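Thought: the user asked what CDP-glycerol--poly(Glycerophosphate) glycerophosphotransferase looks like in 3D. I have the sequence; next I should run the structure tool and report back without guessing.
Action: structure_tool
Action Input:
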Amino acid sequence: MRIVFDTVNVYYLPQYSPIIKLLKQRGHHVSVVCHRNRNDEAAFKDTISNLDVECIWVEDENEAKETYLSLKPDWIFFGNKFDHLDAIHKYSKTAQLGHGVGPKPSYYHKSITPMTVRFIEGGLRLEKIKQYYPNDNFIQVGFSKLDPMFNQQELGFDLEKLGLDSTKQTILYAPTFTPSSLERFPDDWPEDFANYNILIKPHSLTQVRAQYKKQRDKLEKWSKFNNVYVATTQDISLLPFMKNADILLSEASSTLFEFAALDKPVIVCNFFKLKWSYRGIFHFRFKQRFGKDNVLYNEIGKHVQSYKELISAIPQQLAAPEEYQARRLQYTNDHVGPTDGLASLRIVEYIETH
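Observation:
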């Protein structure tokens, strides 16, 4: 078969990669279609070449549509909605694969235009999305991005090569781009945690979008501390960061669910900077987009209301990782799904038999 992965954003690739690897092993022809209007072709050239598959660059969604109508692949995977499915479905089947399992309502609403199948992660998510779209085709498979973690294929970093101390515990800070706690962290915060390694993995958009320059300025300051490693634009995958980390700090990111599925403690940073369009009389917009009506994660781990609270919260949670263990297991069952490392296999077997 010929299978194409629509890569609107390069940060979809960690979700696609385990599936691509398995498809290649089984003899299928795999291509990725990347969108120039959302990604810097030169910056991500090496990242994509490491997949060892054909890469086709298109300008935008319209050119992607024309490419698919020309190629007529058997299957096209999408990480988000696509506005030209009626034309595409004349020649190809389509699969929707979310690139995260975060709390945003958009997780559900991107299925408003049905694809041939949408692969779902956890049981609670499957139940809820069927309520929204009772006539569509949803198959629970798990979360393919985490397969390399569960089947021990992800080796993580060599901390010594990063200039860090492998005898120390490691904090992972993975802020999203908006709403982000990043700008609420002090310029010298690594000094408060000098006895730990600190891995910082910002969202890919923080690293490339002009409007997040102030966030990048913060990252530059933190990178100068000898106990810190800040991800580069080539560090697309969160997996090696999670492999080495003992605890995660984040806000409203899918990372919270992913890390909890590894049965490691998470701390939810409830202090973040809102852009002007979410403040004051516009706060309702924030609630609409980031409301917790779809995915309640209040009990996934310890919540802190300020940076100052982290000073005691981090050592406390590292000393008592069992505090939220039962809740982490429940969240994993509900939102991430099976942790057997076989999500990619279930996806591949489905498309091979359909």
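Thought: the tool returned a structure. Summarizing for the user.
Final Answer: Structure for CDP-glycerol--poly(Glycerophosphate) glycerophosphotransferase predicted. The mean pLDDT is 90. The chain has two domains: 2-143+338-353, 159-336.
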